[in-house]
Target: DUF1501 domain-containing protein
Amino acid sequence: MFHRRELLQIGCSSFFGLGLSQILQQRSVAATAKESRVKSVVLVFLTGGGSHIDMFDPKPESPEIKGEFGPIATALPGINFSDKMPGLAERAGKLAIVRSMAHGDNRHLSGTHNMLTGAVQPFTGNSNQDKSLKRSDWPSIGSSVSYLRPRADKLPSQVTLPNPLIEGVLVWPGQHAGFLGPKYDPFVLKDDPNSEKYKVNGLSLIDGLDVGRLKHRQQLLQTIEGTPTGVSTSPAGQKYAGEQELAMSMLTSSKLKQALDINLEPAETRDRYGRHQYGQTLLLARRLVELEMPVIQCNMGRVQSWDTHVNHFPRLKTMLPALDTGVSALLDDLSERGLLDQTLVICVGEFGRTPRISPLAGQSVPGRHHWAMGYTAVFAGGGVRGGQVIGKSDAIGAYPMTTPYHPNDIGATIFTSLGIDPHIMVPDRENRPRYLNEGKVMDVLYTGAT
Model:
């Protein structure tokens, strides 16, 4: 919960490390950058870490690695997927499959922060603080876009579906605007679009600020300050008044509510995506693409859904067909509507799973465990050259045999696709100038050279 002082500071960080004139110059550069390659990025996020071997990089010749699923041919000669991914196997001509993703962090929270922000999480040394969402976090990719190139219609630049990543009382880091302030937070839908009771009534900011709470605080400030607007006439107060008005405008946007009203879709279209949370979430993503939402984060399941330490294969037998159906429908739908070229679709988790199948300590049922040293990411649309496999893993899918790519590189690629220089300078949490992103753009996605 924000205190009055924090509310007055929303979006008002001084950024003394760079100086106001430099910050304004940086934002001006971002606003007038070269033409963006895409209008939207859809991040299909396999929260918990999807098993690359059981999806896009099967190892049928290694019996101890193979597992229960067999390989099937794709539309690309000599390239196999898991037999639980037949839809995407047929559409492999639209895909760039990067089999050489790698980094060194096997932890869910910091790995997720890296994937969602495009930056390695700065550690405080306090393990409890590093596990929770906080205002010192590096901003999410969409929040950075909102800060550097705000939309003219005052909507945020990121929507997260269908729920934030919350485990008990712990909100995972990297999901909001961090030190940029709540003004640039993404919208988060907190309702299952596959539920019969689904209504567009769950719009809020990541910290839980919604219309009702905002109005209550406005009334409280009116009482405290004794002014009609609830803020003083000081420069800081006037700035807050403008930002409060902006927040209210965003939270009450009819355009966003309409885009999230899945009940406006024909039953046939909803069936096509699959009547499950994955499919209906991805259908909402397509509706947000039509709204030209820059960043659409689709959390495939709740926290750790893909964290299959136990019951690995029984769980994947349900999850993989749902993912395959939903993503296949999304690619077809975008293509048929002429939207795929302006939309970059990425399917990836914070890491992959171990090649070897074994029980977790204290468990009897085997599974696959955290593995960041080698995994797969899949890209489509947005000018990506489809029908290619980039990189190669070793015989058991453990390590890249070719050039490795890092989550920072995905971040750099997203920023560049949206027309923002990933190496623009922004102030970090200590007000020191730092590159927005330290990765390298994955030009190989567009050139086809591995």
About this structure: The chain is about 35% helix and 15% strand.
